[in-house]
Design goal:
The chain is mainly α. The protein has helices at 2-33, 39-66, 68-75, 77-80, 84-113, 117-137. Helix content is 80%, strand content 0%. α1 packs antiparallel against α2 (39-66). The structure holds protoporphyrin IX containing FE.
Amino acid sequence: MYVPLLFVHSLVRWLVLASAVFAIFRAFRGAAKNAPFEKIDNRAGFLFLGLCDLQLLLGLILYFGVGIYSRTALLDMKGAMKDSILRFWGVEHVTAMLLGITLVHVGRALSKRASTDLAKHRRARNYYLAALVLILAGIPWPGTVYARSLIPTL
Ligand code: HEM
């Protein structure tokens, strides 16, 4: 279960990043041109949010269920803090991602509630961009001690 779930979680990472870039591009464009908030802008936000929620669900199963590193960290959190790899999987990855996903939720809700199209674009732009920065910061990039492959492998 661990390997297939990690594979899907790793794959969905790229869909999350692609949908984030698209939603942010649409929001920047809309704000810069003072363009109407179109169906495609709403769908871009919806897709970004939906993929984040899917990633959250997979992440929770990994974190509390089958994730080898996270479960090891959870068994001894105090000890995990002294090990950079266990600290990353036990605390840093989850914290960055949960904050990022929260920002996507808040940003989409506030954007929908805004009274003008310009405000909708601006709110989406600001919150989605901040979320992307956090998500990028939480990814185990090559070159770090907790690095994982960029290519999902089974
Ligand atoms: C947009 C959000 C997220 C992204 C982009 C993301 C990305 C990743 C990536 C790239 C990996 C490594 C996959 C591999 O080894 O090939 C990973 C592993 C993992 N992620 Fe996430 N993740 C996200 C959210 C979360 C959340 C919210 C949680 C927990 C609640 C979580 C928990 C984990 C766990 C437990 C592992 C595996 C650690 C182990 O090997 O034991 N992730 N994630």
